[in-house]
Amino acid sequence: MLMIAGNANALQFGKATVTSSLNEPLQAKFKIDQLTAGQREQLKIRKASLKAYKRFNFKRKSIVGQIALKTNHHKPRSVVVHLRSDKPVTTSGISFLVEAKTKNGRYFHRYDLLLNPSEQNTNGGQVAIADNSATASGEYTTQPDKSQPKQADGQHKHGNYGPVKKDMTLWRIAKKLKPKGTTTPQMALALYRASPKAFDGGINGLEAGTYLKVPDDKKVHAIDAAKAKRKLEGNT
């Protein structure tokens, strides 16, 4: 999500890549491309202020305070911004705003980082899709229809899932409930669209104690798998 003050085409924010895992200090980076010589020389990048979060109606989580930004010149027309934390990150999703300032104005960009447990982070430095080593132990509250034959693994009936426990993630729940023939990102996006009020600050902000409405299989299949994956990676 791009939120800016000034010319919408002035700065080209690239997608973020994460090279660390859950329960490790954060290591991530993103690139800003297509800079003019003047922009590159004058560019100043920092975490957005609390005032900016309020301006865009976006809640700033405490984890953001632990992140440090460092800018390195990459090529004549681009810079790379490295994200680091001293302490291990214990939440599978981090959403935050970056502020970039040039003589032409200030520009804001939202990033949503998702981290896998270390044993599952085998994607060679690409943005990790959220997961969690804890078991999703909430109850799936739909009552089965005893007159119908037992469903195969991976299928589900339309109903509610919850209450969401503190150690549960959307990825884990989606993986458990996805219909046969669909991907976990498709199911995760379907759950998010069906229960937006269960989330605080976007798709990464699943709130404990809430219930998720489980959409029917047709709605999950109807979601484009590639678009769902990009949504979870925070690049839409």
Topology (elements, then pairings):
Blueprint: E1 2-4, E2 12-13, E3 17-18, E4 25-33, H1 37-42, E5 44-47, H2 50-55, E6 67-75, E7 78-88, E8 93-102, E9 105-114, E10 159-161, H3 170-177, H4 184-194, E11 212-214, H5 217-222, H6 225-232
Antiparallel strand pairs: 1-9, 2-4, 3-4, 4-7, 5-8, 6-7, 8-9, 10-11
Helix pairs in contact: 3-4, 4-6
How would you describe what is shown here?
This protein is α+β, with helices and mostly antiparallel strands. It has two domains: 2-120, Immunoglobulin-like, CATH 2.60.40; 129-236, no CATH class. 19% of the residues lie in helices and 28% in strands. The protein contains six helices and eleven strands. The chain has helices spanning 37-42, 50-55, 170-177, 184-194, 217-222, 225-232, and strands spanning 2-4, 12-13, 17-18, 25-33, 44-47, 67-75, 78-88, 93-102, 105-114, 159-161, 212-214. Strands 2, 3, 4, 6 and 7 form a five-stranded antiparallel sheet that branches. A hairpin with a 2-residue loop joins strand 6 and strand 7 (78-88). Helix 3 (170-177) packs across helix 4 (184-194) and helix 4 crosses helix 6. It is elongated, with a radius of gyration of 20 Å. The protein starts with a strand and ends with a helix. The relative contact order is 0.16. The model is unreliable at 1-9 and 120-157 (pLDDT under 50).
List the defining traits of the structure above.
alpha+beta; 28% strand; elongated; single chain; 2 domains; Immunoglobulin-like; 4-stranded antiparallel beta sheet; 236 residues; 5-stranded antiparallel beta sheet; 11 strands
